[in-house]
Amino acid sequence: MTSVISTDPATGLARPLGFDETDAAGLADAVAAAERAGERLVSLGRFGRAALLETIADALEARRDEIVGAADSETALGPVRLNGELTRTAYQLRFFAEVLREGSYLEAVIDHAGDTPMGPRPDLRRMLVPIGPVAVYAASNFPLAFSVPGGDTAAALAAGCGVVVKAHPAHPATSALVGSTIADATEPLVGRAVSVVFGYEAGIGLVEAPAIRAASFTGSPGGGRALAELAAARPEPIPFYGELGSINPVLVSPAAAAARASSLAAGLAGSIALGGGQFCTKPGLAFVPAGPDGDELVAELAAQLTSVVPKPALTTGMAAAYASGLESLGAVSGARVLSGRTDAPAPGTTAPSLVEFEGDDLPPRLAEECFGPVAVVARYRDDEHAARLVGSVPGSLTASLFLEPGDSGVPAARAAISARVGRILYDQYPTGVAVAWAQNHGGPWPSTDSVHTSVGATSIRRYLRPVAWQNAPASELPAELRDGPVDLPRRVDGVLVLPGS
After folding, report:
1. 0.90 exceeded by pTM
2. pLDDT tens figures, 460-474
3. 201 flagged as catalytic
């Protein structure tokens, strides 16, 4: 058996945690526990699950100092950032409690029996029900908000699904601590609603486990592709919701560059370097006009990035991959590295950098994500050229447009860039994803399913499936579909009916 090791990226100190990676028997036990817990979660009902989510949030906050300390020792992200992340994590859980109590997520519909131009219609009632046990693959860069207690787990529990989380090897001690905290909070009511498994083999076995009905993943394209293929190759394929990286393009209009080059440079530099550039929403590619105004913006941006102190990467492997990626960006024909510290960063750290490209067509390598604090600036001559460059951008989570009031500049480029993303920001930087009803965190490939979001109220939809009841007696119907007053919005015979109506 392989021992689970925790490594401090700031010091390189590695320590065994006293337990081994999950074997086949341990994985089977975790999946079975998720099945049992799912039945109990459903029996709790919406309001019972809402209270359970709030109990989990309270339990995490009660151990705040211990959890933040463990996460900092494995990520070097610092207590300020990690305290904020724990607050966000607790907020996500409480947010889904509100979603449950409100109830519209069920999409409850009643069509009473009646005559139609097509003939008699039977009594039909439809709503969403839990899909079953869910596999969650934790992200490296958010040891709380996108890991064991993160948004995927919160949404699955809210839906009524038990969860098995594959811990990320970058923060196993944090994962174990949080997993035990959730277990203590949930076992008295529903059993082990969330199990945590460790190791590569457990990750492969998890997506292949017959009882698992859906999987979610945030991470590299290579890892995500491999798991997506396993999910599709099962005797009964399951949905795989993957966020596999994003370049998050930025488009600066000529008018914006002329009006505020310096402030745009400062804002972009902060967004690129935030958290060591280890955000899935880091702006990795900026389209900036050619000419003196664009020159000023790019020069200031390079200077701002050069002044940023190098930070430890989440792992030494990520630091090495960043160095290799930066070297490959600089080797592209027509590209040149504009910034970078002259002093060699300490082992395991990454220093911000900026690569400028001037050419007719954007080489594919410059439109690929490099995980870390680097961005590419592509210079455009006019709207036609900008739209041509934008045409090489792959699908992304976000696009940021920087315009002036009444700005009609680069319309073709604006339309092209907006068609490639799931969230469009105006005069704001993308590093930050609010947990809200209207949020969308997803997009075209490399998101594996552009229909759904992984953040916000509607992320619960990934773990639900529709069922219709035809001519069912009232005793067979869920409470939400029975006639009479109910506590959630419903569409009855085509008319939206609100609670109390």
Report:
1. yes
2. 999 999 999 999 999
3. no
